[in-house]
Design a protein that fits this description.
The complex is a heterotrimer. Chain A is an alpha/beta fold. Chain A is built from five helices and four strands, in the order H-E-H-E-H-E-H-E-H. Chain A starts with 10 loop residues before the first helix and ends in a 5-residue tail after the last helix. A nine-stranded parallel beta sheet of chain B has the order 5-4-3-2-1-9-8-7-6. In chain B, helix 14 (about 295-315) links the parallel strand 7 and strand 8 (about 325-330). By secondary structure, chain C is α/β, with parallel strands linked by helices. Chain C folds into two domains: about 45-210, P-loop containing nucleotide triphosphate hydrolases (Rossmann fold); about 225-280, no CATH class. Helix content of chain C is about 45%, strand content about 15%. Chain C has eleven helices and seven strands. In chain C, strands 4-2-5-1-6-7 form a six-stranded parallel beta sheet, with helices on both faces. Classes of the chains: A alpha/beta, B alpha/beta, C alpha/beta. The interface of A and B includes residues 9 and 14 of A.
Chain lengths: ~120, ~550, ~280
């Protein structure tokens, strides 16, 4: 669960982290102000199945695709990337095209956010 | 407040009434399992004089402009002058925001309020690698004094006050404002406004960080001291609860943590050697106005009474103006929904009304599209009109503190005060707010409250219209504001042009002198103003601080 | 796709972060092949200096580890960090937030930070963690810092796997009482009293200097621990004493020290001779 860029709004990220924990997942919480490089480094060291990116300050169009790009560069593109937060409607298909598997917008129930992972992310064999 | 005999009769009658209620159908057909405020405070079916039996009108409620100021701080309140309609605005470049400022002033707003972009808020220039992708997206990009001049071009800053929502680099932006004004021939004794400049709540909630807590407190105290001596009409701090609430706290936590922060700032200033009555009148506050109508009104009243008591009894202030809690309010951003955005106009209106009935000095109303993007001109105008309609049509501003005496509201006011003081006592026991923050105490309280609220929504114990109830599949089209990618490149170019024209030696000297002073004990404001006048950029100045004091990083409390 | 065992060994010993990270994950998930890789890696272990850092939540372990890493890097040493956090007993999930406090090392190629959850094991140090230490060791890290939450008797497993154990305490938090009861003070090598600017430091100093026999009873906990230990003892002693006293054990030990045999294989051999798979009811 990562907060890329300078955005400090972490209420959502922390709630989602707790929700995942309460559903039995192990969540590595990155804290604020992560560069895409730092996020990718952590994802690889921790060998996570998925990276969740949270953005509420509008810089997602640069930051999110950059994370996907870096994961690819490091040979870790099997790691799924999802995003949550505030996005203008027309940015969502662009983000998906750039490799973000799913975008969660405000008002999405926790159950749905957690359930998506259970459905769409392959558990390790 | 009521005669003993009368109270006994009411008590007896109330018991009978409640018993009838329990036995009748009324109890069994209550529409909810549990009635509570948005902060999850339980609410009874009825409030009577019994609920305020211990209140003494003179001691606890009183009159406006008289201790303990429960009913308001100014003598005439809105009868004399309406609250300042101050719409928070900032987008793209200084030129774009200047345009928005002019629009809002033309539409009738009475004070300016500036929103900055993330790089500016964090003390970075647009060309910093950390700022990539963030220019102008959640506010205006300010790198140089030149940007500040463009931002306020054509605006009567000698007649109108300006608020700047800026925290770690607040001294720098304030220095730029002062320098800009003086270049226009407006002296620093003339300018009026506010800088938010409240780092404690950053560590707790908003999380725009730069320096660790102790050097942050030093800078803040420098600004308070400088303002007291040289910029008398300026509120050098806006002690904020808004962000604490947005991070998910309850109303009591918002109240308690804000006032506890205030206590910490007062103690720091006293330790500096300042006289309480010299700086306290310029301390200002900033609260959230959230969904629960009555809880919010009670919160504002409790805040005034609490601060008055704290200033008089704890800090022995003599000047009554030191005891005034003057505050700005913003309606709750976190209460707005992306679904069915037009509903947000209604939410904002109710929240604004609560703020007015709570006696706010200045008010910002959110636009309906703020869950989606920065507000469009149309949406911002509707938000402004909301205030104007409340002011001119609703009658809410006709008399002072109209809800005083309401059994419910007075009871709530008492309850909030009691519970908030309990929190403050606990924080005092920990050694004060700075110590409490180092232990992550307020952060954890807020995280727990936020999680609890979200689970209540998911379990349908709390309703969000249009989201978990009355939801529709239909998308409601709303025009939203777009920030051009190009802006970033243009802004960098503009900043580079300023940098080229500067005198390199002058800048280096100014920054050196600043660095030296920072390592000592002098007040840094004059040095910052010098650097700003030599065209140092925001980041160049902030980097001096970072080099000396270190950079604070999020401890990752969840 | 499973790589060849020797490929994995080559990658890990040459410091490949991704390969090492995946291996640690497989160990944690108890993937059967993982043991094979560990056997192959064993000869490359034994170089690193392992330091355990334990103490109650909130005493400042992560901050201390962060400083230690900075210091070691300043001396040109490479470092592996394992940050162990407790799994929620209710949900089986965990939030692993220790690496946040070591931010400044996140892009340093000489530092490998890995979080792990206890996954139901109360010892603070699971077999997975022990194996993860071996992986970091084989990677060539000069120092391995293992941070675990340790309060009671159960949480001091780290002592057996570390060259040096540091116990971090904070005055006035009340868990100093717990620590004493649990005998934690008997197993630490270095005691760090953090946040020593707090008022309660005097009381704390007295605690540490007091007789180690001072115990505080939390009756149910103590009774429970006692009973578990007793039962454990009986079961283990019937079998373990037998094994340890056998010539076979001595021979295996000698081979291990000479690196002719790895402990995983030795263990498999010993156990398979004595224990029928599947317990009868």
């Amino acid at each position: 669960m990562a907060k890329p860029g300078l955005d400090g709004h972490d209420r959502g990220a922390r709630i989602i982290a707790r929700a995942y924990r309460d559903a039995g997942f192990e969540v590595v919480y990155s804290g604020l102000h992560q560069t895409p490089e730092e996020i990718v480094q952590a994802a690889i060291q921790e060998d996570v199945d998925m990276v969740g990116l949270s953005s509420l300050a509008g810089a997602h169009m640069y930051l999110f695709p950059r994370v996907v790009e870096l994961l690819k560069e490091k040979g870790a593109d099997d790691i799924v990337v999802c995003g949550g937060g505030i996005f203008p409607e027309e940015d969502i298909p662009k983000l998906k095209k750039a490799g973000i598997k799913e975008i969660f917008t405000p008002g999405t129930p926790l159950k749905e956010v957690v359930g998506w992972v259970e459905e769409h992310v392959e558990p390790r064999q | 407040m009521f005669k003993k005999g009368i109270m006994e009769k009411i008590s007896a009658d109330a018991k009978i009434w409640q018993r009838l209620y329990q036995e009748s159908d009324a109890k069994n057909t209550e529409r909810l399992e549990r009635f509570s405020t948005v902060s999850d405070r339980p609410v009874k079916n009825l409030y009577t004089p019994l609920d305020i039996a211990d209140l003494d009108y003179s001691r606890d409620i009183g009159f406006p402009n008289q201790y303990p100021f429960t009913r308001g701080v100014q003598p005439t309140m809105y009868r004399g002058r309406l609250w300042t309609m101050r719409m928070f605005a900032g987008l793209g470049t200084a030129k774009d925001t200047n345009k928005r400022f002019h629009l809002l002033v033309n539409e009738g707003q009475t004070g300016l309020s500036t929103a900055f972009d993330m790089p500016t808020l964090m003390g970075y220039d647009t060309d910093s690698p950390k700022a990539r992708g963030e220019c102008g997206r959640c506010g205006v990009a300010i790198d140089t004094l030149n940007d500040m001049e463009v931002l306020f071009e054509g605006l009567p800053i000698d007649k109108i006050t300006t608020s700047m929502t800026i925290n770690p680099p607040a001294p720098v932006l304030w220095a730029m404002y002062i320098a800009m004004a003086e270049k226009r021939g407006i002296s620093r004794q003339m300018i009026g406004g506010t800088i938010q400049n409240d780092m404690l709540k950053e560590f707790i909630a908003q999380k725009t960080f730069m320096l660790p807590p102790k050097p942050s407190m030093r800078l803040i105290t420098d600004t308070i001291e400088f303002g007291t001596n040289e910029v008398p009409r300026w509120n050098t701090i806006s002690i904020s609860g808004y962000h604490i609430r947005e991070a998910g706290s309850t109303a009591v936590q918002e109240l308690a943590f804000t006032l506890a922060d205030g206590i910490a700032y007062v103690e720091a200033a006293l330790e500096r050697g300042l006289e309480i009555d010299s700086f306290a009148p310029r301390l200002s506050f900033f609260f959230n106005s959230h969904l629960d109508f009555f809880e919010e009104i009670a919160k504002f009243r409790a805040a005034r009474r609490m601060w008055a008591r704290i200033m008089k009894e704890r800090f022995k202030a003599k000047d009554e103006r030191s005891m005034w809690l003057r505050f700005h309010t913003q309606t709750a951003g976190c209460s707005l929904t992306a679904q069915q955005p037009y509903n947000n106009v209604v939410r904002t209106a109710l929240e604004a009304l609560a703020a007015v009935l709570g006696g706010t000095q200045s008010l910002h109303t959110n636009s309906l599209d703020e869950v989606l993007a920065l507000p469009t001109e149309e949406a911002a105008t509707i938000a402004l009109r909301t205030q104007q309609i409340i002011a001119e049509e609703s009658g809410a501003a006709n008399t002072m503190d109209p809800l005083a005496g309401s059994y419910f509201v007075e009871h709530l006011t008492n309850e909030l005060e009691e519970e908030a003081f309990a929190y403050i006592d606990k924080i005092d026991d920990m050694g004060g707010m700075v110590a409490a923050i180092e232990r992550n105490y307020p952060q954890m309280e807020i995280a727990d409250a936020a999680y609890k609220y979200q689970t209540q929504i998911d379990r349908l114990e709390k309703t969000v219209v249009g989201v978990n109830k009355y939801a529709t599949e239909d998308e409601v089209p709303v025009d939203i504001l777009h920030i051009d990618q190009e802006l970033e490149r243009q802004q960098i170019e503009r900043a580079n042009q300023v940098k080229e024209r500067r005198n390199k030696r002058e800048i280096a000297a100014a920054l050196d002198r600043l660095g030296e002073a920072a390592q000592g004990h002098e007040n840094l404001m004059p040095f910052i103003i010098d650097a700003v006048n030599a065209s140092a950029t925001e980041q160049e100045i902030c980097d001096v601080f970072r080099d000396i004091f270190g950079t604070y990083r999020d401890p990752g409390v969840y | 796709m499973r790589s060849d065992t020797s490929q994995i060994t080559e990658k890990v010993t040459s410091g490949d972060v991704r390969a090492a990270a995946k291996l640690i994950r497989d160990i944690d998930d108890k993937v059967p092949e993982a043991r094979e890789y560990l056997k192959d890696l064993y000869p490359f272990t034994g170089r690193a200096y392992v330091i355990g850092i334990t103490g109650s939540p909130g005493v400042g372990k992560s901050t201390l580890v962060d400083q230690m890493v900075a210091h070691l890097r300043g001396n040109g040493k490479t470092v592996g960090v394992l940050a162990v956090d407790p799994t929620s007993p209710f949900s089986g999930g965990a939030i692993l937030g220790d690496r946040v406090r070591m931010q400044r090392h996140s892009m340093d190629e000489g530092v490998f930070i890995r979080s792990m959850a206890t996954r139901g094991h109360f010892g603070g140090l699971t077999q997975s963690t022990r194996s993860a230490i071996d992986v970091l060791d084989a990677m060539g890290k000069d120092y391995i810092l293992v941070e675990t939450v340790g309060v009671g008797q159960d949480e001091i497993d780290i002592v057996q796997s570390a060259h040096t154990t540091i116990i971090v305490l904070v005055p006035g938090m009340g868990d100093d009482i717990q620590a004493l009861k649990a005998g934690i003070l008997e197993v630490g090598d270095i005691f760090v009293v953090n946040k020593a600017d707090r008022e309660q430091i005097e009381n704390h100093r007295r605690f540490l200097q007091a007789s180690p026999e001072r115990t505080f009873t939390l009756q149910r906990e103590k009774a429970k621990n006692d009973l578990i230990e007793m039962v454990k003892d009986r079961i283990i002693n019937e079998i373990l004493a037998d094994i340890v006293n056998s010539g076979e054990f001595e021979e295996a030990l000698a081979s291990i020290l000479e690196k002719r045999l790895d402990p995983y294989t030795a263990c498999d051999t010993i156990i398979s001779k004595r224990v029928k798979t599947g317990m009868s009811k």
